Amino acid sequence: MVNSPSRTPGLLKLVRPPDDADFVRRCVNGERPALRELFERERGRLHALLFRMVGPSAHLDDLLQDAFLEVFRSIGSFRGESSLRTWIDRCAVRVAYAFFARKARVPVLETLSDAPDSDRNAEEHALLREATRRLYAELDRLEPRQRLAFTLFAIEGRSMREIADAMSSSQVTARVRVWRARQMLETRARKDPLLAEFLGDPVLPADSKKDDV
Questions:
Q1: CATH 1.10.10.10 domain range(s) in the chain
Q2: Which pTM does this prediction carry?
Q3: Which CATH class is domain 110-213?
Q4: Would you say the C-alpha torsion 67, 70, 76, 77 has a positive or negative sign?
Q5: Any idea what DSSP says for residue 77?
Q6: Mean pLDDT, residues 100-112 taken together
Q7: Other Cβ atoms within 10 Å of 181 Cβ, number
Q8: What is the mean pLDDT of the chain?
Q9: Quick check: 89 and 141 in contact, CB under 8 A?
Q10: Which end of the chain is more exposed for a tag (fewer CB within 10 A), N or C?
Q11: What CA–CA distance (Å, rounded) separates 141 from 137?
Q12: How far is CA 89 from CA 22, 112, 164, 165, 167, in A?
């Protein structure tokens, strides 16, 4: 007689994670519960991405809303040529580019308003505020596509392939845009020691390993 296997409740009750392909399908079909879940999944990440692209701005919440309106309005056209997250990033890039095209100016350093707790911290806080203000002032001088490519690379940490996908361009174009933005910032930094210290080492060395062609 064969003994029955011992029951191990922890193993018998394993639950598979939700099927992501099914989730994407439900989103593309416009199912409201799936779209609400997509919003909850991506809201924080998309807010951070927009912040890095446009800088501290009183318009961030509006831009986030615009990005999700773009996502929900056009998600039925998603065909899976890239990941859903990359496709969402493209929507955010379009919203950011439209923001710059309207020539909206970026209010600076709204997120650094917490009061420091010592004189030393107060000095560091003030220097950080000023350095960040100068950086975004210089970013405002860039052509919008160069600015978006540069912030995706240097601040968001994206590879050239990811930047090209997000901006619907070639990797060569993405690299040229980042390079031109870097050249301008480094030229300005040579005349501004605080900005130079804040930027640190060159952001796109010739042997950069971020380009994963």
A1: 110-213
A2: 0.68
A3: mainly alpha
A4: negative
A5: G
A6: 51
A7: 26
A8: 78
A9: no
A10: N
A11: 7
A12: 20, 26, 11, 9, 9
CATH T-level topology, domain 19-107: Rna Polymerase Sigma Factor; Chain: A (1.10.1740)
Q: Residue written as tokens 């493209």?
A: 90
Q: Can you tell me the distance from the alpha carbon of 131 to that of 139, in angstroms, rounded to the nearest whole number?
A: 12
| Secondary structure (DSSP) of 89-104 | HHHHHHHHHHHHHTT-
Dist. CA 129–CA 71, nearest whole Å: 33
Instruction: Tell me if 96 sits within 8 A of 88, measured CB to CB.
Output: no
Which of 13-17, 68-72, 180-184 has the weakest average pLDDT?
Answer: 13-17
Q: HSE of 58 in the Cβ direction (CA atoms, 13 Å)?
A: 3
Q: What is the mean pLDDT of residues 16-29?
A: 75
Cβ distance 167 to 103 under 8 Å?
no
| Rounded distance between C-alpha atoms, residue 208 and residue 24, angstroms | 34
Domain span(s) for CATH 1.10.1740.10 in the chain: 19-107
Does position 54 have pLDDT exceeding 50, yes or no? yes
Question: Which tokens is 131 given?
Answer: 């350095």
As a residue count, the chain comes to 213
* Res 34 pLDDT > 90: yes
Q: Can you give the pLDDT at residue 120? A: 57
Hey, what amino acid is at 81? E
CB within 8 A of 194, min separation 6: which ones? 127, 130, 131, 134
87, 67 Cβ separation under 8 angstroms: no
